[in-house]
Every structure is written in C-alpha cells, then in structure tokens.
Write a structure and sequence with these properties.
By secondary structure, the protein is mainly alpha-helical. It contains 18 helices and no strands. The radius of gyration is 22 Å and the shape is globular. It starts with a helix and ends in a 5-residue tail after the last helix.
Length: about 400
C-alpha cells in the first residue's frame, strides 16, 4: 500500500513537471518558432538544466510536438463544449467566449498558454504527421459548429468559413492585449457580432469591383529579379516561418546559388523587411485607390477586401502574413510594426466613414479593422485549406463571408 502511494505521488510529480515544461516551451515556441526554440531556453524558464528536460523530452522536436498536441486538445475541449449549444450562432458565440475566458485567465497568470499553430508545418516526420492528424480532427469538430442551422453550405464553403472562424478566434490573441481584461466581454461581443453579421448595413450587398494590378503600378515579376526574390521569399516565409525559410531554401526555390542570393540581397533580414514593404505598399495602394472612387465606404471596403483576397491567390501572391513580424530582430520590428498599424488604422477609418454614411452597420471600427487584417492574412492559405477549389473562387469563399458574415448565403 505504501509502495503504491509512493508510486502514485511520483507519477503525479512527473506529470506536473512535464506540464510545466510544456507550458514554458509553449511561451518560447510562440515567440521563437520551432526553429528558434532551444531546450536550454525552456530549461531556464522552469529552473532546470537541459539534461533534466531531456528526461521528459529527448529532443526539441518531441517537446514542440507536445506543445502543439496540448494546444489542440484544449481547443478541441472548447469545441466539444460549444457543440452542446443549439444552432451555429450559439455555438460560434460559445466557442469564442471560451477562448476569451482562457485568454483572460492567462493574462491573470492562471492556466497554461495556448500555442500558436502557424509553425506546425516546420515540424519534421514523424511529428508532422502525428500533429497534422490531431489538428485535422480538431478542424472536423469545428466544422460541426456550423451544423443545425437554416444554412447548408457545400464542402468548399464550409471549409472556408471554418477556417475564417478559427483564424478570427485564434489570432484575436495577437491584438487582445491592447485591452484590459475587464473589457473582454464587450470586445468578445463585438467580435462575435461582426463574425456573424458582417459589415454591410444592407444584407446581401455584394458586387465588389476588383482593382486591376495594372492600376497599382506593380513591377513586372518576369523583368525584375528583385520582385522574383520577394515573391519566392514571401511564399516560403508564410509556409515555413521566418527561421524555417533559410537562405539555402530561398535560393533552392529559385534555383540559384547562395552567391546569387547575396548579389541581390545584403542579408536575409533585409529581404524579409523588403517583403513586408512590398506587402504594405500594395495594401496601402489598394486602400487609397478604392477610397478615391465614387460610392459608399462599404463599397470601398468590399473592393479592397475582394481585390486583396484575389491577389493573395494570384501568380503574384501571396502577401506576407503579419504573424511573421514577431520573429524579426527588434531594431527592424519597430518600423515594420508602425507601417502595419497604419494599415489597420486606415481600415478603422474606412469603417468609421461607413458607419457615418450608413453603408456599414454600427460596429466597433477598431475590432472590425483587426478582423479585416486577420481575414486578409488568412486568404494567403486559401488553397491549403480549401483543397480542390479554383483560385478564382477565393473571393466568393473568403471575401464574401468576411464582409457579409460567416452565415451568409
């Protein structure tokens, strides 16, 4: 009996320490990515040496996979609880509420952190297959949040809307820290409102004008080696993360030598900043071009969203995802962040103009602006999420539910 009690106590201590290591590693993983995380840095967070951490996780990849699997399990639990609600509106609201509760607890120093899933694709086998299988199961559960209502979506539409929902909820964590925790219920309600009802004051208003690339003054990729590097680098960084997209991989993508890479680029960091500059320049030009046209502010906003979603899925796309910003060296991060915030603020101003002219519902401009940034980032992954869909369908499947709500026809 004494031996059994001692064994149970030892098992409990092991499990507790393992959970503490995973929690610490999740914080590091969210900041540094899989490639940047080290066992030594994680060990320092829990007052252990590296050898002690390897008692629980032999390799860094084992620990990274454990972080992703723990995050998937927590999100899956939220989905299961939300599925007890009646109908998609109540289920989506409940799922969002549970995520906000979790984020609030973490702000208060309670509970384990939720991992950011962007870096999953940098895992190697066998961890990649294991984590991908678990993630796919989580997504299948999230699709069920849309069941039981008066809207029936085909496969592609359901996949796209599930993806948008998860992106809006997961990446709200990237801007929620700007609010005090006591404001979370109000922000949550405004996020849910825009997700479900969209932006338009006139339900069903959807006839966007796509702004042509020739009107935006973009350089011809086939004639500009620099543009070719930027496009290839953007695609790799979006897929593999800042650290995963090495100079060797970028060079291999273009079938050039490292020497050729450094002939066109001083260093990788400068190239990443140039990718952000290209992204910000394009978004700014689209915003200004749309705002210069006649029509309501909602029309301008719909044109911007439709144009950028289409560009993301064109031969010239995608744009660099904002989430790559976190891995930039600090001296470079400040100026890139400032430009990104100006784009967000301009979206907020466009929404405020629409509320004033009556073309946009009375929504929170700040929350709506953050949501537009997230939705446009999500559009870069359209082909990965909605497999088999033609790129031309991206506007209908991604832009339309962004502007009219996840449950629109």
């Amino acid at each position: 009996m004494v031996r059994d009690t001692a064994a149970a106590a030892s098992t409990a201590r092991y499990a507790k320490k393992r959970e503490a290591i995973v929690a610490a590693a999740t914080d590091v993983l969210n900041r540094q990515g899989v490639k940047g995380m080290t066992l030594a840095e994680v060990a320092a967070q829990v007052d252990l040496n590296t050898t002690s951490v390897t008692y629980y996780f032999r390799k860094k990849e084992d620990l990274a996979a454990a972080c992703f699997l723990a995050g998937i399990e927590r999100i899956t639990d939220m989905i299961r609880e939300a599925l007890r609600e009646n109908g998609p509106r109540a289920r989506i609201a409940k799922f969002t509420d549970l995520f906000f509760q979790r984020h609030a607890m973490r702000r208060g120093g309670e509970g384990a952190p939720l991992v950011q899933f962007l870096d999953i694709r940098t895992l190697e086998e066998p961890h990649l297959s294991i984590v991908n299988e678990a993630y796919a199961g989580m997504v299948r559960g999230a699709r069920d949040l849309f069941s039981g209502g008066d809207r029936l979506f085909d496969r592609n539409a359901l996949h796209a809307r599930t993806y948008l929902l998860l992106e809006h909820v997961f990446w709200s964590a990237s801007w929620l820290n700007r609010y005090d925790v006591e404001d979370y219920p109000r922000v949550r309600d405004r996020l849910i409102d825009v997700m479900l009802e969209g932006f338009s004051a006139h339900p069903g208003a959807w006839s966007p004008h796509i702004i042509g690339e020739d009107q935006l003054g973009l350089p011809e990729a086939r004639d500009t080696a620099r543009e070719t590097f930027l496009i290839a680098s953007t695609r790799l960084i979006n897929r593999l993360g800042y650290r995963g997209a090495s100079v060797e991989k970028i060079s291999a993508e273009l079938n050039v030598t490292k020497g050729s890479f450094y002939h066109h680029n001083e260093a990788k960091d400068e190239l990443v900043v140039a990718c952000f500059d290209r992204t910000h320049d394009l978004v700014r030009q689209v915003q200004h071009h749309a705002m210069a046209d006649a029509g309501s502010a909602y029309t301008h906003l719909a044109d911007v969203v439709a144009t950028l979603v289409q560009f993301q899925n064109s031969d010239r796309g995608p744009l660099l995802r904002t989430l790559a910003l976190g891995a930039l060296p600090e001296p470079m991060k400040a100026s890139v962040t400032e430009r990104s915030l100006r784009i967000t603020d301009r979206f907020g101003a466009m929404i405020a103009d629409g509320v004033t002219d009556g073309s946009i519902r009375a929504i929170d401009p700040a929350v709506g602006a953050h949501m537009l940034k997230i939705a446009l980032n999500a559009a870069a992954e359209f082909s990965a999420w909605v497999r088999g869909a033609d790129r031309a369908e991206a506007v209908a499947l991604m832009a339309k539910p962004t502007m009219l709500g996840l449950l629109c026809d």
